[in-house]
């Protein structure tokens, strides 16, 4: 093969690769996240759209980014914005007592205030399948705080729709705007099918905004510390560790406190051809706030497994950094 043809083929591969950067950091033997970046680049060359960002929790320094400015479908990640608005209403009306309930141990939790205990009924119009537990339970009504816990733990679609009926999408959008989010939005309620008059996606987001949002959550800067603490408490219940979070060796059903010095708070999103995760992880030496979304042709299990393996590899790089 002539050298000119080889060169052109090489250039085409480079053009198809994601536009990203890695950071060099002291104490980490030069370039960090080497394996994760290579894995995501390989995915991108195979046709997967990759967006990702990681920032140091302490300094806010960008450690890793791949097309992190793009706003892409993020499935259920947008439910975090709903939880923030719910928490803000609870803390403003209950004086932060509900947030204290999530900070204490099981034996000394404070009693949540009246807003957190407001009872909401489910209706036939709220009904939707897929993720969540409430659809499988007999209880017809639950307190606001319990519905938020279900969303944090299992991304409960029915609980999401009931909370949205109470809160309203406009309020959630206004809250996101007040937090400076321009490319990260919860667009709609959860639907079994999306028609031509419905939003095409449940939510969209940019990896850059999501990573920084989770950094602010960890630092108590989302609205205020009481609100941030409530949201962290709900998200710490998340049972989905199938993506980036699967690299940390935590118990999917019980990781509300640090395990081997590792603490994780995250939210995942899953849809046909979409795998998305945002969160923060803290270790003995450092902490990382991160977001990663993969859009791929989900025509077979091999394509899906390749995406999950790459996200797991990225998580392994994060684990190395925080240790």
TrEMBL record:
Protein name: Serine hydrolase
Alphabetized PANTHER family for the sequence: BETA-LACTAMASE (PTHR35333), BETA-LACTAMASE-TYPE TRANSPEPTIDASE FOLD CONTAINING PROTEIN (PTHR35333:SF3)
InterPro entries in the cross-refs: Beta-lactam/transpept-like, Beta-lactam_cat, Beta-lactam_class-A
Gene Ontology molecular function, alphabetical: hydrolase activity
Domain of life from the UniProt record: Bacteria
The keyword Hydrolase is assigned to this record: yes
Region described as Disordered: 1-28
Pfam families found in the cross-reference section: Beta-lactamase2
